[in-house]
Structures are given as C-alpha cells and as structure tokens.
User: Which sequence fits this backbone?
C-alpha cells in the first residue's frame, strides 16, 4: 500500500470511534502532509451541510513560509492577551494546565505546521441572531468534518480562531476580498507524540433537558 | 439483537461513508424514537470540541406536543417570509425545487416530529468577529456530530434555524434563561422514505486556494 492508500483506509474508521477519540492535537511535526491526503480531507469537509445548500465556502491551504509566519504572528498577538485569561482558569486544574501548555507550544511553533487551513465564508455574518447562527452553521459542520477526517487517519489538527482577531489583517495576509470572512484556522500535521485518544466530557445528563430548560428527568438522583 | 443494539451497531459506519451520504432528511414519520437511541446520539454530539473545552452547551429534547406546536408555529412565521427568497432561487433548478418542497413539508409537519432537539449555548455571542466565530464554533461541531450520528443509524435529521427568528419567543417557549442562546433546531425521526444517500457538492477544486485567495493551483485547466 502507498502512504495515501493507508491514509484512505483510515477514513473507514467507525464514526463513533472517531468522535470518541477526537482531541485537539496541537504539537505537530514538520514532516510534510502530501497533497493527496490534504485533498481527501478537504473533500470530506465539503460533504457537510450548509444553509440552503449554498456552499458559500472557500478554503485556503497555506504552505508558504511567509504566509505561515504572518498567521503565526497574528496568533501570538492574540495569544499574548488570551493567555492571561486562560492562566486564571488553570488555578490547580491539571487538565487546564496541560491545555495551556499545548496552546503555548502551538503559539511558539505555528509557522512550522506543514499546512494551515483557513476556512472562510462568503458574507459577513453580522445580522440578526438567526442569520448569524445560520452563517456559522454553514461552515462549522465542514470544519468538524475536516477535524474528524484528520483524526481518522491520525493527522494532528486543532481548531483555533486566535489568528483572526483582526479581520483586516487576516484578509490582508490571505488576499481575501472584503466580502469573504475568515472563520476558522486549522493547523495540520503529523503529531509529535501519539496525539489522539479517548476524550472525556461532562456527563450528558448534566446538559440535557426534557421539553423545557430545567426539566432534568434524564439526570439520575 | 434489540432495536437499540441494532442502532448502536450503526454508529460503527465508516466515517467517510457517513459524511458522503449525509443529507438533510426532513420528511419524518411519527413513529417514536426511543430514549436510548436519543441519548446515544446526544452523547456522541457532546464528544465534539469547544473553545477552551468549556462545553457551555445545553440540549433541550422536546417531546411535549404543546412545545412542539409552539416551535412549529415559530418556524411557520419565519418560513412564510423565507419561502419567497427560496422560491426566487428555484427558477427552474430541479434540485432547489425539491429542497423547497421538503422544507415546505417540514413546515407543515414539524409538530409531528417525534423529537425536536434545540442546541443552546451559554452566552450571547455578539462580540467581535473572532469571539462570534469561537462562540458558534463551540456548538456547531456538536450539531454536526449529532447529524452524522443520526445519519449512521438511518435516523432522519436536518438542521434549521428558522424557528429561532425571535430569541425572546424561542426563550419563552423553552423556559430558557436570558444568558442562554438557542442556536440550532434539529427535528429527529425515522424517514418517511429511504432518506439518506450520496450527496453532491461543488468540486473541491473550485473552492480551494493555495497560500492566498485566488491562487488556484489545484484547479485543472
């Protein structure tokens, strides 16, 4: 099997396994990610639904070192502020501390990611709450497909919006027309260490309500 | 095998197959969807990533006929306006015409869905573009997991925001506190007909750019 055939085989991972072992993988090797793999992942991304099936998306796959540096610079500006907020949350929580370390590692190495995907949408998305939700609901399902597809083949990936704190600077970096909004950034690369594994979440019952908010019939006493 | 064991087996559908055959399934039977199935799907939804792993989500599973009627009423108000916009797009396009018919069917029968999920988030999500994206990016990956999980077991599902045109009325309908935003509505039920099947999208190459917007090296001449 060629590397790509092995990769393709990965896409047949059981759906539930991919979801149950999805994690943000931020420590990435510099080893290249080949075009075939990249295209296969993005093709699965574009299988996602969009409002009215409009598919108003554009994906920028960044490999150019200068553009990657510019994105990394934007990310560091944002992170230098966001870090303080995150650091307060840590407060002895080991899991939060590990996340902080990983995001710091990512900030220090973002330009070394073999490829950075920027997912964009036509439009600006700042209308009514309904229109806003429909706007972002027309790109994040694709982003989640991308992340799940990466997970299924063991390719490291994590979602961030930190480099997008200035729409003007982000647009300038990517030559984006004003009518196109950069929405999400996903660095891709093979994990430095194992990377993926079972994730843990709050018990579903804590966030599930029947008929009305507050009606917690699913919550065992 | 019990019905639920069969259902669980479905979650092992290959990831790529689930994505490649995901469709909006709007014509739903009134046959019940059991709690075990519902909980299993929602559990996979909550495996999705959220910004800072905050998991600030709440899911309302609506089975009560009065609440379903109220949601259907809100949906019809919104659809009576949106329909005109959609109708203009049809203009001889058969695929768009079929979608219009299906959304009309859904509007006429929404209260008969065995269960309607309303996905909500803590917060309001109307800050900077970066914060907005991060907000919606903390619920739509879960919504996409929910839709893919439903698809994998053949349970009909489709994403809509139409019933959420008035946050005030949506909050009142679901007893939601002011600090919680209803983001997406997903009616669930067994499909009237086959339901799922291969979906078609624009060729990836039309929406893919290298390094900068407009650099279309992946696009074959």
Assistant:
């Amino acid at each position: 099997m060629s590397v790509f055939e092995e990769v393709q085989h990965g896409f047949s991972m059981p759906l539930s396994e991919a979801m149950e072992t999805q994690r943000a993988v931020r420590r990435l090797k510099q080893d290249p990610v080949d075009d075939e793999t990249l295209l296969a992942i993005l093709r699965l991304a574009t299988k996602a639904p969009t409002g009215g099936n409009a598919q108003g998306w554009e994906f920028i796959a960044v490999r150019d070192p200068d553009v990657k540096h510019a994105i990394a610079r934007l990310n560091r500006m944002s992170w230098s502020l966001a870090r303080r907020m995150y650091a307060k949350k840590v407060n002895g929580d080991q899991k939060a501390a590990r996340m902080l370390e990983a995001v710091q590692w990512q900030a220090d190495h973002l330009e070394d990611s073999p490829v950075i995907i920027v997912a964009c949408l036509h439009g600006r998305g700042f209308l009514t709450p309904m229109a806003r939700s429909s706007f972002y609901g027309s790109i994040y399902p694709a982003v989640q497909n991308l992340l799940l597809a990466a997970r299924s083949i063991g390719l490291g990936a994590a979602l961030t919006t930190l480099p997008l704190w200035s729409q003007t600077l982000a647009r300038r970096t990517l030559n984006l027309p004003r009518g196109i909004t950069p929405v999400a950034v996903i660095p891709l690369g093979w994990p430095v260490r194992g990377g993926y594994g079972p994730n843990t979440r709050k018990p579903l019952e804590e966030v599930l309500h029947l008929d009305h908010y507050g009606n917690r019939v699913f919550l065992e006493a």
